[in-house]
Amino acid sequence: MSKILVGRNITWHGAKITKTDRWVKNSHKSALVWITGLSASGKSTIATELEYRMFERSINTFVLDGDNVRHGLNKDLGFSAEDRNENLRRVGEVAKLLVEAGILTIAAFISPFKSDRSLIRELFQEGEFLEVYLRCDLSVCESRDPKGLYKKARRGEIEDFTGISAPYEVPDEPEIIIETDRLSVAESVDVILNVLKEKEIIYESDSRSSLLAPQFSKRMAGIAITKS
Amino acid sequence: MSKILVGRNITWHGAKITKTDRWVKNSHKSALVWITGLSASGKSTIATELEYRMFERSINTFVLDGDNVRHGLNKDLGFSAEDRNENLRRVGEVAKLLVEAGILTIAAFISPFKSDRSLIRELFQEGEFLEVYLRCDLSVCESRDPKGLYKKARRGEIEDFTGISAPYEVPDEPEIIIETDRLSVAESVDVILNVLKEKEIIYESDSRSSLLAPQFSKRMAGIAITKS
Known about the structure:
five-stranded parallel beta sheet; about 230 residues; alpha/beta; 10 helices; homodimer
């Protein structure tokens, strides 16, 4: 680095912007909210509503799901066991970059296996990974069946369909359990927002449009890196 | 979706947050600034300084480089021709997600081949991909050689080293050319910032700490989606 600068009268700051710098600027922390559950348990619906409710509070947020990952980054992957693992591994790594960039990231994937979910958890620091298990009776999911996938699976037209012909491993210790066969979408999102507040990832704000919550700046002052 | 909501008295917004929504909230647009050039041409230095200067203006920004990609998302890839292509393909797709999330993304990669760079360009809408070519004489790069890589390459200890034993294909029509053997780091970054302003991706602001540039809100009003 120094060699590049030899003989030059320049101002170069050299310091990389850290995740903490971004938290201070944004007035909220970043983390990964990982939503897991059966097909039709409400993952996408809750992810979309959670994103809306956070955005409304000026939180930097983004949803990763099959729609935006399978058609781009992971379009080279199929649905073999190996490719499904790799699909989730990459999602975890992308989420890590987004969290590093200060984005309160939401991921909505069936992710039926404990091993995949814990590999992703391990990428994050303590408190930056929240597993949200949508507990919904299979019969309820099957009666919803918005894309007709359960019917196809019952007819044997889809192999290894979670809950029908492939297992779903219930999380042992998820940060949040939501019974989506009992709670409304709005109630479900409230549960997640409240946990994010309890964990001081987001903060109460008098005004939803306030971009700088004074109480947050105060709290964060201790860890903020001062640059002149 | 409707099936999930049947019989429930809930408020559900349903609408996904769009890139434009984020632009309005952030008071700047998002795009990918792709920095290409020989090893030691100054890519990382300029990327880091550009990030700093943008962050200082409250712009949401993030740098993708070998450091944060090769050790995570792309740690399964080696340095064969095929793996190098896949490395850059994935970087392009991740950048697309970041840009979708409203982040003014900076990528710093040698990326010696036109084909790789144009595949990435094609992922983006017109005006959202800016190719920045750091033009720096090979002899200058070689004299800098901060990591001793050129020496190793000359001794034949590194195969396919760009500029020595592998080609670098100069961009035909990059949005920006910077002669890093003539300009300082600060001057180089100024060039990029000025182009971002000309292209109305970022805006002049009276106060560096102002999070809402009124002139931007005005400009964006026409494309903002109003949600009540």
